[in-house]
Batch of 2 targets.
Target 1
Amino acid sequence: MKTIIKFIFYIFFIVPVVFAENNINDKNQDAYDLYKELRCLVCQNQSLLESNAPLALDLRKVVLDKLEEGYTKEDVKTFLVERYGEFILLKPKYSVQNILLWVGPILFLLIGVFVTFIFLRKQSMNKEEGISLSKEEADNLKKILDNNVP
Amino acid sequence: MKKLYSYIPLIVFFVLILFFARQLILKEDPSELPSVLLEERFPEIILKKLGGYKLFSVTNLMNANSPSLVNIWSSWCVPCKIEHEFLMRMSSDHNILIYGINYKDKKEDALKVLDLNDNPFYAIGVDLDGLQSINLGVYGVPETFIIDSDGNIRYRHVGPILEYDMQNIILPILDKIMREKI
């Protein structure tokens, strides 16, 4: 009885794991990485990996076929960009056209920090000016306060 | 001088407004991709024959006398059915050569559609597994390419061609290509 249970355990739990391990070779890892980096053009905010659209399945097949033909990851990307445009890359390239996309957020942050800094400094300077009265003002103030005392 | 920097956020705000307004007013659908292959040769793709219909091969497009359309369609695609009428009108009323690429379809279903609704295509090629169309950058049916008489892609239309698209986009571009030739 025990052996049978053991046997069943092996079949259902160990064997699939062994097969899965064998399947993960370099090519599949490359394909997996590419699936994550490429956009499904039907469900446009999903990657090929997440999407179940028929086109995504086809594109996955193309990626795998090309890797098998000896294409590198970069070659596969270039192949697809030539056909679908840079839009297929989920992460835009670092290029001159995309410079605003990459630098923009930092630029806006810097503008914000700069303006806030100047604004705060100006405000604190106003405060200091307000605290220290000139001699004339101090005398005036004293006079008013004294006069008000009955 | 003191004033200038305090206007920076306002200026940035207005630049952003202009940017967003442009996207709103132009009404370009950002999910529609322009073809990467514009002004380029129609790629070499290999298609199979559909029943008794003339086989469309890429060589048909080279050194043609007139511009032509390449339409990707399928029997299971509903917008293609709507578009069918306009393809018929273009091929019969305007004498435009339309080549069809039958995309991931069952042969019997495709033949049935052409039997029932008439055939707008001069020649047809079958792309059974959809992998040939990937070379064209196709990402959904229907799509239509306008090819000039030298076999270069001049325009790509994503989605069905309706009355408006036919009158205001497709026919004018074909006209323009014809006039270039003279």
Note: Chain B has a mean pLDDT of 89.
Target 2
Amino acid sequence: MKSAIQIDDLSYTHPGSDFRALEHVSLAAPSGQSIALLGPSGAGKTTLLTLLDGRLRGWRGRASVLGAPLDPDHPPARARRPDTGFVFQEFALVERSSVLRNVLNGRLGRMSPLRAVLWRPTSRDFELARSALADCGIADLAERRVDSLSGGQRQRVAIARCLAQEPRLVLADEPISNLDPARATEILTLLTGAARARGATVMFSSHQPDLARRFADRILGMRDGRIAFDVAVNELSETATAELYREAGIPSGTGLRAVS
Amino acid sequence: MRSRGLGSFAAGVLIAGAILWSFLTTDVELSRLLSAGPRIADFLGRMVPPDPTVMNEIVKGSAETLRIAILGSLGAVFLSVPLGILASETMVSSVVFRPVRTLLALIRAVPLILVAMLMVGAVGLGPLPGIIAVAIHATGMLAKFYAEAIDSVSHAPIAALESAGAGPLARLRHAIWPQMAPVVARDTIFRFELNLRESLILGIVGAGGIGFYIQTYVRSFQYDKAASVTLAVIAMVITIEAINVALRRRFA
């Protein structure tokens, strides 16, 4: 099977500090897998996801995503960016724009630069945006402004935007941290289901081991910038999870922001 | 908390001292206020009924004031876009934005009427010095507002569009501008309202507009005509404020 993620000995220190967000992280993931990242706040989950999305500079090691290497000094080529979709923790939507417009923003990387600037989505862009909205169960909200939506609805818009991008790898940074348990289950069902239906690889970070177990094939435990364990879902032990969150207190749901 | 008590005592002494000093040193004789009562009544009495025959002057003056406010605001917008960018923390380095912000603070510190007097001296009487004065004076505030609008843009949507593969121009157009536009529109309208209010008095220093007639009628003791012009000014201020309130609701 082709590999979706191949990283080797990755290290990263935040500029202007000696805080090591990632230390010697290695990982290989075949395409089609659903991977959950567990670990306390500050473990390096957001940093790792941001790096895989090609938005982090100045790291050391080797990384390639969907068969193409990432450059620690330069962002990936524009044509490659839409292949990796990212679901942001705080949704990262344009608040005053409509739901449809936000989802169409996910198509900007697939449009020609001129179309993107002048805002001339093709009928295919509209088609994909509409079908992403339908998949996320929010087709009826298309014309609503984002700032009038609830947290759960916003997360669906954020996922729809990511799906409209037609990604082959979906990275989700704590997609359920702002949601109640019922909403959280719905969102993870949606995210992993939609990715599976499209044959995409998923990696999501979470503070909820139970839900991670339900929706992932593989669990990565991170602590202090290192991978503490890397197991198939049926091999995850209670002690390993407990050890991961030792002295971490109550999971706060706020991961370290790698990029300000 | 001893130092805090001392501080408020010192502040109290300072305020009391300032008030006493003001009474002592200027020519403030409260007795004059008493004898002035009948004169004030006479003055007000001569304002009623307002003389409606100055309608032509009112229309002409109001139109000129409106033109000064519109063109002055337009000039301020043109000056504020580049200066706002140069005053924003996110667009340029502190080597640039600090001096630009200081310059804007200095501009704000000079009252409009003073700028207008200088401009009358520089370009002569009429609405032109008024327009230039409004443009310069308003830029001090508007450029600062624009800089704040740029700096208050949330970075998350920009990162999201970058992640989706949008280029820098597309990010500016679809992630930055939609966040800025309502703030910029609201601030510009607010500043236009201030420009209109403040330009009403420009005529007093010969910088054009309806203020010229107020001054002329008061100086020639035609208080009934001055009253008509004053009523027109009040009507204009209320109207522009009502329009502004309605518009602001749209940009909320």
Note: Chain A has a mean pLDDT of 89.
